[in-house]
Amino acid sequence: xxxxxxxxxxxxxxxxxxxxxxxxxxxxxxxxxxxxxxxxxxxxxxxxxxxxxxxxxxxxxxxxxxxxxxxxxxxxxxxxxxxxxxxxxxxxxxxxxxxxxxxxxxxxxxxxxxxxxxxxxxxxxxxxxxxxxxxxxxxxxxxxxxxx
Length: 148
Fold this sequence. Notes:
Shape: flat
Number of helices: 6
Order of helices and strands: HHHHHH
Strand content: under 5%
Structural class: mainly alpha
Number of strands: 0
Helix content: 55-70%
Largest sheet: none
Distance between the termini: 78 Å
């Protein structure tokens, strides 16, 4: 009942402002104001205001909104963890040799160092890119072109 009264008062005030605006010969603005002023009364007559008022004052509705918030936070947390995990390479398990030992623990009978397979060979040094002075030659040429 209170919500309907408030909506009616807001609509009446809006229509009054529209009348004053029309008196000042601003008819398009007055028409817009009148249209907005009729919305609260329309919501009361359709029953939307009663439905919203009934929903707002029920504790079960607020508990439902709280649970929706918790579910949303959990989904965001799992996405954040998933994205963080995608940045790291996956952990690879060591192949197990006979006796429960890993392949790293296995040693050839007469070897002086553990035979680790293909991963133990020293890797060649990566080819270096051009020297840093070469990287700035393009920039120097541009600066000289502009007289800097």
